[in-house]
Write a structure and sequence with these properties.
Length: about 140
């Protein structure tokens, strides 16, 4: 039995050494640990969740804007008209029924506005047409 052990023990040591050498040389899975894979998966899911939240917020905002009060829509239209006034030479605001604006008056008002005298233009318009203050101001602002 001693002869068998003297042959068998070195054979087992040689087999273990070969197994360890083969295991050490075997290619790895890219060097990414389970913790790294978990971090990447967590980042991907977090990004997808954030994109879904942004999309839901944009949809909710669109619904709110669509359901806005008509007065709010009118205010927005007025603001847009102030940023994009009517072209020169046209009547920017229709005068009230029964009121005639002469071309000379319109030209005089435009000259006053260009010279930075809006208050004088409003005063002149109110004297000539008996517009209320708001209507006269809106008319002069759109010249």
């Amino acid at each position: 039995m001693g002869d068998v052990l003297t042959v068998l023990v070195p054979a087992l040591v040689l087999a273990a050494a070969l197994w360890a050498f083969a295991t050490a040389l075997k290619p790895r899975d890219g060097g990414m640990s389970d913790a790294d894979r978990y971090q990447l998966e967590l980042a991907r899911r977090s990004q997808a969740h954030y994109a879904a939240q942004v999309q839901a917020a944009l949809a909710a905002r669109a619904r709110l804007e669509a359901a806005a009060l008509p007065s709010q829509n009118r205010q927005q239209q007025i603001q847009q008209q102030e940023h994009h006034p009517a072209p020169q030479g046209s009547y920017p605001v229709a005068p009230p029924p029964g009121t005639m604006l002469t071309p000379q008056l319109v030209l005089q008002l435009q000259t006053l506005v260009r010279n930075g005298q809006k208050l004088e233009a409003i005063r002149l318009l109110r004297q000539a047409t008996h517009f209320n203050l708001l209507t006269a101001k809106q008319y002069v602002d759109r010249l």
